[in-house]
Amino acid sequence: MKSKTAFITGATSGIGKATAEIFAKNKINLILCGRRSERLLELKNILGKLTNVTTLQFDVSNKEAVVKAIDSLPSAFKKIDILINNAGNAHGLSSIQDGSIEDWDAMLDINVKGLLYVSKAIMPQMVKRNNGFIVNIGSIAGKEVYPNGNVYCASKYAVNALNKAMRIDLNKHNIRVAAIHPGAVETEFSEVRFKGDTEKAKNVYAGYKALQAMDIAEIIYFVVTRPAHVNIEDLIVYPTAQASATILNKE
Ligand code: NDP
Ligand code: 8X3
Asked: Name one GO molecular function term (predicted).
């Protein structure tokens, strides 16, 4: 396979799925990851018409599963040029004293440790080749703490710190590292945060035009296609109606 290969976590929905779509249109080979196998299969069938696609079904927070999945990649997909660390979610939105410990564990295990497990399995080959690109999807929640955001914000502050750490430690290995921090993007994010309460989730995006997953995917594609000497390290992207994590110009 001549063109570059990208490994995308959280490709079954939202930002990760849109990134897979734009990468496929631009002939980037794809390793698509997520837990929902039926969605992975559907994506493989559709995007496989545009580029080479393989899928890996695993939970990023399960370190043995991460290693096993990545070890199982077919030889044509073993060389990974671009890693998009996108899998993540929020569980709950409540004051810290009322938060659920299970929700805290899930957010820290997925958003922080999951990102580390996947990166740990892929960084060594990039170091060896003295080449690679890692894009970490942070959040405005990793730049500003907002009321009731507590542990989700902490997890995204950690992503922000890890992005900087990767940039520093991988710099001498010619590996580009970039973080993109979106504000409100209309995806399944709020459905997950509110545990399937679709009305509550819909309300998050009501009264203004939220970012769409493809808005972020186009930016990711732009970032990874800059010339070799250019690295866009840290980028905040808001919908026009949003001025901060908490200031939103709703109708
Ligand atoms: P979605 O809920 O639409 O997508 C989340 C993706 O992550 C899904 O593909 C899901 O796949 C995957 N995922 C979740 N948990 C796991 C897990 N344990 N193991 C493997 N994969 C997992 O949300 P978004 O597209 O909005 O979210 C993508 C990223 O963007 C997240 O990191 C989120 O924090 C961040 N973000 C989102 C914003 C927003 O407003 N939407 C704003 C700022 C940042 P599956 O369920 O199949 O495993
Ligand atoms: C997702 C955006 O504002 O809900 O990271 O934290 S927000």
From this structure: oxidoreductase activity, acting on the CH-OH group of donors, NAD or NADP as acceptor
